[in-house]
Design brief:
alpha+beta, SH3 type barrels, five-stranded antiparallel beta sheet, flat
């Protein structure tokens, strides 16, 4: 009987040290694993497009992880430089005209091109800040990201509800999917936390909260407030 408390104490000690060690090494291991998988994925896409005689294992006698990434980056830089010129722009325009003649391909290409232009363009609008909206019913709050003021036909149809804003409501734990909501500005609670901190909160399913001490004394510019009409 006297050995039971000692065994439980040993097990608790082992478990505590294991969890403490896991908390230290897990972020680094997961980061390395993610980077390695991205490099392997790009290599798997790029290297099959390169003639075999130009592969590192053929030219040097051994494989070099990341060779496909280097080739992809170099090719992207060359294409970016080339398309800035008159000849490059002409060829791109000619290729897009060919794509426009293909019904199914045209729809996919235009959608992907619009998304890429929005994400990669330096002048592209980005999420303004994080906020709280009531979803899926009043009384239940969810973290969302303010996109812009609702404009165009949708803004005109919803004008009777006051000024509307467009917000993106991400899903957990995958914030790349979600819902586009048009919400009255008066029903949105703007947050001082950074977009990155709000994304961490969503991805971690509420386990990782930003340090509130960092927000003390920080005053972010607020959106212009207007009272709802009607």
């Amino acid at each position: 009987m006297s050995s039971e408390p000692g065994k439980r104490g040993l097990i608790a000690w082992l478990r505590g040290n294991f969890l403490a060690g896991l908390a230290v090494i897990a972020p680094g291991v997961l980061t390395i694993w993610l980077i390695w998988n991205v490099i392997t994925w790009i290599d798997g896409l790029v290297l099959p497009l390169i003639p075999r005689r130009f592969h590192p294992e053929t030219m040097l006698g051994w494989d070099i992880p990341g060779a496909g990434v280097v080739i992809f980056v170099a090719f992207t830089l060359v294409m970016g430089y080339f398309t800035k010129g008159l000849i490059g722009r002409t060829l791109v325009t000619w290729g897009e005209r060919i794509v426009e003649a293909m019904p199914v391909v045209r729809s996919i290409y235009n959608a992907v091109k619009q998304i890429a232009d929005t994400i990669l363009s330096r002048q592209a609008p980005t999420f303004d800040r994080a906020c709280l909206v009531q979803y899926p019913r009043p009384g239940i709050w969810a973290v969302a990201f303010i996109s812009t003021t609702t404009r165009g036909e949708i803004g005109e149809h919803l004008a009777e509800n006051g000024e509307m804003i467009s917000v993106f409501l991400p899903t957990t734990p995958n914030p790349t999917s979600g819902f586009l909501l048009f919400v009255p500005r008066a029903d949105v609670i703007e947050l001082d936390m950074a977009i990155e901190d709000a994304a961490k909160l969503v991805i971690s399913a509420g386990l990782v909260y930003p340090d509130s001490r960092k927000l003390k004394g920080v005053k972010l510019p607020t959106l212009n407030q207007t009272s709802p009409q009607g």
